[in-house]
Predict the structure.
Amino acid sequence: MKYTQLGRTGLKVSRLVLGTMNFGPQTDEPTSHSILDSALAAGLNFVDTANVYGWGDNKGRTEEIIGTWFAQGGGRRDKTVLATKVYGNMAGGDPWPNHDRLSALNIRRAVEDSLRRLRTDYIDLYQFHHVDRRTPFEEIWQAVDVLIQQGKVLYAGSSNFPGYKIAQANETAARRGSVGLVSEQCLYNLAERRAEMEVVPAAQEYGLGVVAWSPLHGGLLGGVIKKEAEGGRRASGRSADALANTSVRAQVQAYEDLLDKHGLEPGEAALAWLLTRPGVTGPIVGPRTVEQLESALRALELELSPEVLAGLDEIFPGPGPSPEAFAW
């Protein structure tokens, strides 16, 4: 396993992040535990979840599955850098005021509930799942600073923040003498590179580690056309919608052809590409099976040649930095 520092912190994390969104909705508890055990055995120590995972009437179920895994002992909790999130409404089918967003009240309530479900007394990285345009950062940091003083949270991070909100959050924290955000979890992959315009540069400027979610863009970058042709799993969701566009389909076909020419597996190459990007701590992989985890781990050993990297840039050109991306 390869490790790096999380942003400007002293925290050492694996270059792959185990995403757990499938735990519960698509992967049962015993299989989820097997994936967690396999990840830990491989040295993958960075586990990401959210309080709303489990979805629908089962919000919180994913945290519970991780909690029962921790409860098995064997150093599982001590070896894990645990990240979870707060923002979404947890009140069930009849939302009640103050059970969502980033008010001091909801942050206090949500962290206690997550700690109970996760069967732990602290969270390594507590992430804001979305921007809250109604709550000032002074209030957010007041709540987080209390949690840090209590030892219930060690670091704070953001998710789905635009560049200016990263700046606003950390400038506010600096005025308070607080540490501020240490990571940003954003949508970032070969097919979706808009984060390179302002989010990644802002993260680098403020010393945040970038954690990329949906590194295969909903399966679009995982060899979906070849799998369809071979009678395998058909595209669904985001990848199916994208492939309905003929120009996107041609782009994905060119991508698969390039990697086939060099004997590379598309999903592994897409992960390896992210590992070459400046500022990226690591991509989040969300395996439904142990076999999918093993495939993701192989990306760590994959070195993309300059020819392949140039070809990928030609097929999926990035927007470039701002303001050049949209101005003279």
Notes: The first strand starts at residue 3 and ends at 5. The CA atoms of residues 82 and 106 lie 20 Å apart. The chain has a mean pLDDT of 96.
